[in-house]
Amino acid sequence: MTIWQVDFYRRPLQDQQGTPLWELLICTPNRNLEFSAFCPQPEANITWLTTQLQQLVAHPLPDQVQVFRPQSLSLITAACQKLGISVEATRHTRALKQLLQERAGEYSQMPGYTGATYDPLLLEKPPPQPLPEKLWGESWQFATLAAADLEERLIPRPIPILKTPKPLLPSQLKLAKSTRIPGVVIYGGRQSMQIAQWLQSQHPADVQSVAGAPSGLVLEAGLADRWILVTFEDPDIAAAAASFEQRKQASVGLHFLLVQPDDSGMTYSGLWLLQKL
What we know:
The protein has helices at residues 46-54, 70-83, 94-104, 147-154, 192-202, 235-250, and strands at residues 3-14, 20-27, 34-40, 64-67, 86-89, 129-130, 139-146, 161-163, 180-187, 204-210, 215-221, 225-232, 255-260, 270-274. By secondary structure, it is an alpha/beta fold. Helix 2 (70-83) links the parallel strand 4 (64-67) and strand 5. Helix 1 (46-54) crosses helix 2. The longest helix has 16 residues, at 235-250. The model has no long low-confidence stretch (mean pLDDT 94).
């Protein structure tokens, strides 16, 4: 499958008439293709975008386009529909984000640079929303697994909902087999599969421990969605949450989210490998 990672959004640039400029930026995951084109903001529409994609005649159109920026998604999706290209909304666009950061350092040398504060990866994030009560589950806990046990024993289990992308496997991240991978386990009881199905529909990306009054765990999902998984005030749980974040640093951000009916270890409903991006 051929994949392009695509961003289409305004930059800290303007044309000679003072009109803000938008940039179409495209690359493949291995960056053997890179393409950039600018257009004035009033022309940033489906027609312009479709034309630009079609003009990449030296390269066959991809099977799929990946988009991480919510503000770009609707325009890119509409253009790709005209060309028969599927679109995946995902935070996992590492090559594109790297290219965007490199480009950000080049804009100051370009004509029309505005000097405006600019973070190429900054996304507006809404306040975290509480989970619907029916998805709370019966209990939860922090857990750790050795990298080898996670990859060689748990992931091969017959788990109905399994999202373990190859780039996030401990072996692909060059982690030692003994590295402890932190995670969060939700015991869903009879609602276990319903909880797992809902989580899968939200496309989990990252679980963060957030200190406060109360403290809690926030699930980052989709492109910019945020959900409050649990809240807690107990000092022991707060200490475990701090340890969870420390272990994430030692595992290059890799962690897991596991949903199972109970603590018997016999059946599982859903497993996701996560990493902050």
